[in-house]
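Problem statement: downstream parser choked on a complex file, so we are re-checking the raw output for the S-adenosylmethionine run. The parser issue turned out to be on our end (a line-ending mismatch), but while we're here, posting the original submission so the record is complete.
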Amino acid sequence: MKMILDERGKKYILKEGQEFQSDLGIVSAEVLSDAEIGDEVKSHLDHSFKIVKPNVNDFIDLMDRRCSILIKKDIGTVLAYTGLGAGSRVVDAGTGAGAIALHFGNVVGETGMVYTYEIREDFSEVAKRNIETFGIKNIEVKNKNIKAGIDEDNIDVVFLDLPKPYEIFEDVYDSLNLGGWLVVFFRFSIF
Ligand SMILES: C[S@@+](CC[C@H](N)C(=O)[O-])C[C@H]1O[C@@H](n2cnc3c(N)ncnc32)[C@H](O)[C@@H]1O
């Protein structure tokens, strides 16, 4: 996956095989497919663009989403407190667009695994596409109600960001490894 950076520092994710268009001009699909990370390319209006490799944060900022996503400060807190790392196994719900799932996948690496549950089919499709585009293979998006049961065991971290998370605490404890973490993100509305 490649990202293009314009002279103003504005970032765009490039779509495979497609030309790039912005108010600073068009860069052809051919030029883009030949360009390597670090190259500079020109639009037909003679503006310069840099080809760069997006990191997980660049990608999340630009990816498709249909619901609110967790912000970096909260994601950072979860990663730092739980200490999860290479080889960790994570259960996450609900997926939403996949923001924290992508961070989990990025941190647990090829030897770890992330199972992320999303009750809405349309949201799970968006998340699957986002994860596939980012090119990470260690995240399984499950279009399932997590309250119907957690399929996995030997889990190091369960992260819940959904209404009434306490309804599945017992099930969570059965899935967790000794010393594992249950992290709950509460969103309050009081009327
Ligand atoms: C605020 S969003 C999650 C954002 C996400 N954690 C992120 O990283 O940005 C809450 C999601 O939980 C999903 N959801 C709600 N109840 C659920 C359930 N019982 N099982 C699975 N997903 C659920 C919703 O459809 C919604 O997409």
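For whoever reads this later: The longest strand covers residues 176-184.
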